[in-house]
Amino acid sequence: MENEMLLDIKGLQVWYKVYGGFLKVLDGVDFYIRKGERVGLVGETGCGKTTTMKSILRILPERDSKIPQGEILFHNTDILRMHAADLHRVRSKGIAMIFQDPTAALNPVFTIGAQLQAVIRTALDVKRKKDQTTVKKTAIKALKEVSLPDQERLLGNYAIQLSGGMRQRVCIAMAITTPRDLLIADEPGTSLDVTIQDQILRLLKELVEKTSTSIILITHSLGVAREMTDRIYVMYAGNMVEMTRSRELFRKPLHPYTQGLLASIPKLTGGGVARGIPGQIPDYLNPPIGCRYHPRCPKVMEVCSLRKPRFYEVDSDHEVACFLYEQ
C-alpha cells in the first residue's frame, strides 16, 4: 500500500563505551521511511549515519555499545525488543544491508559461491538437496545483474582473488538476490569506478520500481542523493537537522549546516573556490549542550547553547531543527 509506514525510528540514542566514559554518538534520532520510498541520508564522516543503520539490524557490538532509549519500529514491531528468532527473520527476509567496506563484509575462508548461496538458502528456506540447482541459478543471476563476468567461475573464488570493486558488487548481489522490504545501502559505490557505479545505482533504482523495495541510501555525494532519492535527511553529530524532498533541499536549504554542505560542493561552471565549513564535529565524550552545531554555526544565537532545537515544520514535508525557524 502506497504511503504505508515501513520503518519508524523514534528518539534513538546510541552510546559507545570507551576509556573515560561513553561516546554519546546518537542523540535522539527520528527517522522514517514508507513502503516503496527511496530516502537519502547525508552528512560528514563520523556524524552517525552508519551507526543509525547498524542499530536497525541490531549489529552494533554488544559489549561496547548501549542504547539508553529509543524505538525502531519495523512493520509496527520494535526491533530493539525482538526475540532472537524474530530478529533472524527480519535479517534474512525483511532487511538487507550493503556495507561500505566489502573486505570486512566477506568471509575470507569461504568461497563467494558458498556465502552467496547460504544467503539465498536462508531467505528462501531451501533445505532439500534437489533444490540446490535453483539456488545456484539464483546466485549466478544475481552476479550477472551486478555486471560481474564469468559468474560460474566466480562462485569458486575467494574474496582475496577479487578486486575491491568486484567484492563490493558481490556484497550488492547478496543484498538484492532475494526480495526484501528494505535495502540499506551504505556508500554502495565507494569501491567502484564511475561507470560501474552508475550501473549499480540504476539497478537499485529499478529494484524499487519493480518490487516496491524501500531503499535507504547513505552517501557523501549530494548529487547522487538528489538523483536517486525521494526525500533526504541531513545529519550532523548524531542529530537529524533537516528533512525534505530531494529537489527542495537543493532549491531551498534552510539549516545553516545544510547551507554549508551545499556551499562546499565544487562547481563545474566555476565561480570561485568552494567554501568549507570551519571547525570539526564535536567530541562525543563531552558534546556541547544545546544544538551540537552551534560552535561552528555562523548564525548562532544565545538560545542555541542552552537547549536542543526540535524539528519545526517550515513547509509541507520540509522540517528543520533550528531556532531560526521557531516562529
Explain the overall architecture.
It contains eleven helices and 13 strands. It is of the alpha/beta class and 327 residues long. It has one domain: Rossmann fold.
Rounded to the nearest angstrom, the radius of gyration is 21 Å
Structural class: alpha/beta
The number of helical segments is 11
With strands numbered from the N-terminus, the spatial order across the biggest sheet is 7-8-9-3-10-11-13-12
Q: List SSEs in N-to-C order.
A: EEEHEEEHEHHHHHEHEHEEHHEE
What is the count of distinct domains?
1
What percent of residues adopt helix (DSSP H or I)?
25-40%
State the separation between the terminal residues, measured CA to CA. 36 Å
Provide mean pLDDT, rounded: 89
Q: At the first level of CATH, what is the class?
A: Alpha Beta
- Uncertain segments of ≥5 residues (pLDDT<50)? none
Major β-sheet annotation:
8 strands, mixed
- The counted number of beta strands is 13
Shape: globular
- Kindly identify the CATH topology: Rossmann fold
- CATH architecture assignment name: 3-Layer(aba) Sandwich
Give the CATH superfamily.
P-loop containing nucleotide triphosphate hydrolases
Strand content: 15-25%
